[in-house]
């Protein structure tokens, strides 16, 4: 047998070891098509490899079998083997524990195994040890140790990564496109670090890119890595002829056996990116034969990602499943991928290495530009393209422009009121009047700009094409960028555009615009000018929606100080006090929050001229404060006072009348003792909203959800679930299917299914709700934690305790980071976690959690009658009774209302 033939057999044998056994026969037949003798030779080697007979093994393979642990509790150096994790053509990988009396640590231990080409694998293995020692990066699995066994076999000890392939991680969590791209940025960072250390990975694929449960990316397996600088290695790491690779992720130059560069790893990253975006690789190889592999990868251009997700060549159910795993529909996914992402992928997958991104860092920069709404380098766009880049989604039509105009008109009216009011106050007259005149001039300038958005410069004007929010906003942003010579007008324009972005659910974009507006005003007016208050209020609201409560509170308190110092309108001060109070509630300071709302009510009751709607809203907030701490009697009294006030001061069908009815009903529902009356009041409030707002208004949808809550408590499951379904339908029609509030509505529907015992439907609804929350809020938002907590209760009902515990612990962790550890809401969630532990007979842990939760709840000012406190009492009684210690339950049983 000549040397070339021998190398070919060895290469196929080594590659076959990495192919799972169920697929190995078909794979080998494809590789050896037309050469049955070649196939027979490789099969002989595979058979010899699998046989246990000593005589069939070469010397180094024999040594490996003698030294490799065959069961648990064997040792290699200071490491005890726990179990085998996997094996390939080069080595066996074990989960091991270091137990040498110094410290205990779980690791992945990689031990060289026998091979027909053992000498080269030995050299390559030692090179991997050198390579990993040079790489220190948070997204690269770290080398911890290495050595030689008694049988003279080298081993490598690496950080043990408990994760799943990046594509599987994304699909399991239904991550949207942006979240997937952010994960790939971490991969690019790790690859770039390797490149800077003169190392190519050469086998980048999802199986070598794991993601842990907490979302950390870890790049594994530099067994195929090649040092770019040959002076750093005395041994050749691999022969060009023996190309161990994964064909689906290999670059054209790898397939051809040519010299590789950093652009080769970029190509593999492009393949991984393609699969993360579309759910399928860019090439579908049917046989894995060398000829087909070469034809596809070297000669054919892949289908654009946006076309691949709606391809007629793919079964419809596969397309639907891929879109669902990304939390969207095939057509919406196509629109997201079309354009910039198509261009980024195409550049990464160019056949010519010189035309790709030269480095992983360049690929990452273009992805970051896309995520930031900036023009990407892969698209050589026109000036118009660069202006359009700021907004990607299209949900609301030209009404958005009307919202901007309305907000500005309102701002001008407030400014004029401030001017005339200040004119009566002698010591502020002239200054306030000048401010008002400037505000009116700015409003006129901005109105002129906004009107121009609908006129010249619109290439479709008069063609019957409807303007969209995307059209208006990108023009507005372009106009605002042109206003640097008029900074105060520019600031007002940016604020108005930020408010529209917030209404679209684009909180990150809204925050950027509002912060730009605030910075300009601070530079032009100083840090305490009254004009800053509006921007600070808007910015605080956006930060609240992003779950950034301490930051939001800081902005809102600053706005309140400015308004009080400037003696602004009573309703403006009161509304800011209410905003500050709402944020204090999130952070657990109920005492200060209630005092602030009471101040707002007092201010508005004596305000001249009276502001009936503002007072109604303040009373509603005050009632909610009492309700939140379980003071149901005072809450009901305040809500009834609100109802009397609205009926005296406002039209009978004003939405605030409906709000009062709904709030009275809901406090009766929560106190749990007048459910029939609660349902009647909520029905009445629902009808007011239907008449005043119409059945398509989101507030009407929310009222349907409130009605469903009381129906669930009364056992009217079918009616409740139908109302919850309609609740979601109304919200989706108003906002679109991918808006943050849809996650909450879908979770409420899932709660209804769970309460009705329809657990399979509940599971599907929770998965959908969680996917929407992950995409719109992100994994660390308190709203996401709320859905995880509800999902955990379903898992408890299904007796899937490990998943229930995982979801609940994650939810608690999120809320502790966002709100602090000792707020009442966290205490209640610790009680829910205790329920899961009780079901597993883990009584000591459950007791500790319950006592901690009860203490947190007491510290938060929640009264014993509150439903959360009552739930904790019932759970700790259940614990002690199940534990067989009923005497310990008695002090808690005595606190249960209506026992």
Secondary-structure class: alpha+beta
- What is the CATH class designation of the domain at 165-388? Mainly Alpha
Strand arrangement across the biggest beta sheet: 1-2-3-4-6-5
- Give helix % range: 55-70%
The CATH topology of the domain at 165-388 comes to Transferase(Phosphotransferase), domain 1
Low-pLDDT parts are: 51-71, 229-243, 381-441, 450-467
Overall number of strands = 11
Taking the sheet with the most strands, its summary is: 6 strands, antiparallel
The assigned CATH architecture of the domain at 165-388 is Orthogonal Bundle
Separation, N- and C-terminal Cα atoms:
89 Å
User: Beta-strand level of the residues, as a percent range?
Assistant: 5-15%
CATH superfamily of the domain at 165-388: Transferase(Phosphotransferase) domain 1
Number of helices: 39
Oligomerization state of this entry? single chain
Query: What is the residue-averaged pLDDT?
Result: 78
State Rg: 33 Å
Shape: globular
What can you see in these coordinates?
This protein starts with a helix and ends in a 6-residue tail after the last helix. Helices cover 64% and strands 6% of the residues. 47% of the residues are buried. Helix 7 runs antiparallel to helix 9, helix 20 runs antiparallel to helix 21 and helix 26 packs antiparallel against helix 27. Among the domains are: 54 residues, no CATH class; 224 residues, Transferase(Phosphotransferase) domain 1 (Transferase(Phosphotransferase), domain 1), CATH 1.10.510.10; 173 residues, Alpha Horseshoe (Serine Threonine Protein Phosphatase 5, Tetratricopeptide repeat), CATH 1.25.40.10; 114 residues, Alpha Horseshoe (Serine Threonine Protein Phosphatase 5, Tetratricopeptide repeat). The protein has 899 residues and is an alpha+beta fold. It has a six-stranded antiparallel β-sheet with strand order 1-2-3-4-6-5, covered by helices on one side. The chain contains 39 helices and eleven strands.
């Amino acid at each position: 047998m000549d040397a070339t033939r021998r190398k070919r057999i060895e290469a196929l044998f080594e590659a076959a070891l990495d192919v799972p056994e169920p697929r190995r026969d078909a794979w080998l037949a494809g590789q050896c098509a037309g050469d049955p003798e070649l196939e027979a030779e490789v099969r002989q080697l595979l058979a010899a490899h699998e046989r246990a007979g000593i005589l069939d093994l070469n010397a180094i393979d024999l040594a490996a079998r003698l030294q490799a642990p065959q069961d648990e509790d064997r040792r290699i150096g200071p490491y005890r083997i726990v179990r085998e994790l996997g094996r390939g053509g080069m080595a066996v990988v074990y989960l091991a524990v270091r137990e040498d009396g110094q410290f205990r640590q779980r690791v992945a231990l990689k031990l060289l195994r026998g091979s027909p080409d053992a000498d080269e694998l030995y050299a390559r293995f030692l090179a991997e040890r050198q390579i990993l020692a040079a790489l220190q990066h948070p997204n690269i699995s770290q080398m911890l140790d290495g050595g030689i066994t008694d049988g003279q076999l080298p081993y490598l000890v690496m950080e043990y990564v408990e994760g799943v392939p990046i594509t599987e991680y994304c699909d399991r969590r239904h991550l949207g496109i942006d979240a997937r791209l952010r994960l790939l940025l971490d991969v690019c960072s790790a690859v770039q670090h390797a490149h800077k250390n003169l190392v190519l990975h050469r086998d980048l694929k999802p199986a070598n890119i794991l993601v842990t449960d907490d979302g950390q990316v870890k790049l594994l397996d530099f067994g195929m890595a090649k040092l770019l600088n040959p002076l750093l290695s005395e041994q050749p790491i691999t022969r060009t002829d023996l190309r161990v690779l994964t064909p689906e992720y290999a670059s054209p130059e790898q397939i051809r056996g040519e010299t590789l560069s950093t652009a080769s790893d970029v190509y593999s990253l492009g393949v991984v990116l393609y699969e993360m975006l579309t759910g399928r690789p860019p090439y579908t190889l049917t046989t894995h034969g060398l000829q087909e592999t070469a034809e596809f990868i070297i000669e054919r251009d892949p289908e654009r990602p946006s076309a691949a997700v709606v391809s007629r060549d793919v079964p419809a159910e596969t397309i639907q499943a891929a879109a669902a795993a990304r939390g969207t529909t095939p057509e919406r996914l196509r629109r997201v991928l079309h354009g910039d992402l198509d261009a980024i992928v195409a550049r990464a997958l160019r056949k010519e290495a010189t035309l790709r991104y030269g480095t992983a860092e360049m690929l990452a920069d273009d992805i970051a530009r896309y995520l930031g709404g900036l023009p990407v380098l892969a698209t050589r766009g026109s000036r118009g393209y660069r202006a359009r880049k700021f907004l990607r989604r299209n949900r609301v039509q030209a009404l958005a422009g009307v919202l901007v105009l309305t907000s500005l008109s309102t701002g001008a009216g407030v400014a004029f009121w401030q001017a005339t009011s200040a004119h009566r106050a002698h010591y502020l007259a002239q200054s306030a009047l000048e401010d008002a005149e400037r505000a009116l001039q700015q409003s006129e300038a901005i109105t002129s700009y906004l009107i121009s958005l609908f006129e010249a410069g619109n290439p479709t004007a008069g063609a019957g094409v409807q303007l969209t929010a995307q059209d208006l906003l990108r023009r507005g942003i372009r106009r605002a960028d042109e206003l640097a010579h008029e900074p105060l007008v520019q600031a007002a324009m940016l604020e108005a555009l930020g408010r529209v972005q917030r209404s679209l659910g684009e909180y990150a974009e809204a925050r950027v615009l509002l912060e730009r507006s605030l910075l300009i005003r601070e530079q032009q007016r100083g840090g305490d000018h009254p004009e800053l208050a509006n921007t600070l209020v808007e910015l605080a609201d956006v930060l609240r929606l992003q779950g950034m409560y301490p930051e939001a509170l800081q902005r809102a308190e600053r706005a309140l100080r400015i308004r009080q110092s400037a003696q602004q309108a009573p309703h403006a001060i009161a509304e800011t006090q209410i905003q500050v109070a709402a944020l204090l509630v999130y952070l657990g300071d109920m005492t200060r929050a209630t005092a602030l709302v009471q101040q707002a009510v007092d201010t508005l009751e004596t305000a001249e001229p009276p502001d009936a709607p503002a007072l109604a809203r303040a009373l509603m907030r005050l009632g909610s404060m009492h309700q939140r701490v379980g003071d149901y009697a005072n809450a009901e009294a305040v809500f009834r006072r609100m109802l009397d006030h609205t009926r005296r001061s406002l039209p009978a069908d004003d939405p605030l009348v409906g709000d009062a009815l709904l709030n009275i009903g809901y406090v009766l529902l929560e106190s749990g003792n007048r459910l029939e009356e609660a349902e009647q009041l909520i029905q009445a409030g629902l009808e007011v909203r239907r008449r005043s707002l119409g059945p398509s208004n989101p507030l009407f949808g929310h009222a349907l959800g409130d009605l469903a809550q009381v129906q669930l408590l009364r056992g009217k499951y079918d009616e409740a679930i139908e109302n919850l379904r309609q609740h979601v339908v109304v919200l989706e029609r108003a906002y679109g299917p991918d808006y943050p509030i849809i996650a909450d509505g879908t979770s409420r529907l899932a709660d209804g299914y769970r309460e009705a015992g329809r657990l399979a439907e509940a599971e599907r609804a929770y998965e959908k709700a969680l996917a929407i929350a992950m995409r719109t809020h992100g994994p660390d938002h308190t709203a996401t934690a709320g859905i995880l907590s509800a999902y955990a209760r379903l898992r408890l009902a299904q007796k899937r305790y490990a998943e229930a515990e995982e979801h609940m612990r994650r939810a608690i962790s999120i809320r502790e980071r966002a709100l602090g550890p000792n707020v009442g809401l966290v205490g209640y969630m610790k009680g829910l976690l205790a329920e899961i532990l009780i079901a597993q007979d883990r009584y000591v842990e459950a007791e500790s959690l319950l006592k901690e939760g009860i203490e947190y709840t007491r510290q938060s000012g929640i009264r014993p009658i509150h439903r959360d406190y009552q739930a904790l009492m019932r759970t700790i009684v259940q614990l002690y009774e199940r534990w067989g210690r009923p005497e310990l339950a008695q002090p808690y049983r005595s606190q249960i209302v209506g026992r």
